[in-house]
From TrEMBL:
It comes from the Bacteria. Belongs to the SufE family. It holds the Pfam family SufE. This is SufE family protein. InterPro entries: Fe-S_metab-assoc_dom (IPR003808). It comes from Paractinoplanes globisporus. Residues 13-136 form the Fe-S metabolism associated domain.
């Protein structure tokens, strides 16, 4: 899976090789591990809402001077599956470059084998999160 950052590729491989009954437990772990928003983003200032998600979901990507990307996600704990998508991205993309993030395959969740574990509606929401994240990164690159 050389078309994505090494951390993300490792997570994808773990999910893809896990038995179906373990996948939901793994998602819950990622949901629980979501870092809190910094105080300056507490009111979702400067964050983009992802309306494709059934629950309120906000994200922000910032391209740093060294071409790495910092991401922030906010999703209520009552939406563990959607929150897990954010947790996977937060961990898997930590320290990734703009090129690595833009190269993440759009079918990421299918590669993880999530189609057998969660509903298509949830996967569509997760895919929208990734698409909006990539769009934010690309928009910050175009003025350069």
């Amino acid at each position: 899976m050389s078309d994505m950052p090494p951390k993300l590729a490792e997570i994808v491989d773990e999910f893809a090789s896990a038995p179906r009954e373990v996948v939901l437990e793994m998602l819950i772990e990622f949901s629980d591990a979501m870092p809190p928003l910094p105080a300056e983003l507490a009111g979702h200032d400067g964050m983009e809402q992802v309306p494709e998600c059934q629950t309120q979901f906000f994200l922000k990507a910032t391209v740093n001077p060294d071409d790495t990307v910092t991401t922030w996600f906010d999703c209520p704990p009552e939406a563990p599956t959607t929150r897990a998508f954010a947790g996977v991205l937060a961990e898997g993309l930590e320290g990734a470059s703009t090129a690595e993030i833009l190269a993440v395959p759009d079918d990421l969740y299918a590669r993880m084998g999530l189609g057998q574990a969660i509903s298509p509606l949830r996967i569509r929401g997760g895919s929208a999160i990734l698409a909006r994240l990539k769009r934010q990164v690309a928009a910050q690159l175009s003025p350069r």
